[in-house]
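Final report, section 2: Outcomes. Of the targets proposed, Sulfotransferase family protein is the one most frequently requested by collaborating groups, and we therefore present its record in full.
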Amino acid sequence: MKIAVCFFGLSRALATTHESIARNVIEPCRRHGETVTLAHLYHQARVQSVRSGENADLDPEDYRLLDLDAVALRFTVPSQLAGILEDMKPYGDAWDNGFSSLSNLIRQLYSLSASFKMAQLHDPDIVLFCRPDLIYHDSLEPVLETLVQEKGDLVALPDWHHWKGGYNDRFALCRGIRAAQAYAERLHVVHDYVARKQKALHSERLLRFALERANIPTMVFPQRASRVRAGGLLVEEKFWKSKASKLPYLQDALPEIQPT
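The predicted structure is given below as tokens.
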């Protein structure tokens, strides 16, 4: 079994998150297969965000804490992303903050796609897409144990924060390259999304649209992860569960998750 663990976006606070990533993400993968750890990250010295309240310096070298097999650092924003942002603006601003969050979403989707391209070089059976600015509270071991037994394409997502009829896009485990591609290459379907929906691009709704468009079976699991802001501030997540998605659980008897 070949497993690729892909990190993407902005690392923010790996000094706070890297131990949970090693313990609950990477080590379980290594117990279940030949594992490669990869990252496509924006090399950035400071973050300012009105939405998250962040205004802090970053350590651009903290990715070294993950001891990655390969890392690609992006020092500038790709020029083509400005055109995509302009294409999205006529459909509205889902976050109502001057398109700041929309711009960040497009940048994140680019990084996600780039990390997947790195994974494809290793021909993986299972691909994990993980934000590095999350503390992973629970081991992903039970999820992996199920996925290694699967034969077809499948995307497994957390069972919480399926906002506004969409799917949680914080992190995912994908069985099969077609499933991983549908999850990771969402930037390629943003134009189809707004044309079809005739409404503002929205991150969780986009994920649901992309997986349903590709006809990828999607299931959920209860393992949790919390965001960490620049400077190490832990966001108090509610882990709100929506019945609206009606997604089935990955297996009947995942271990009960205890509150942290």
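DSSP finds seven helices and eleven strands in the chain.
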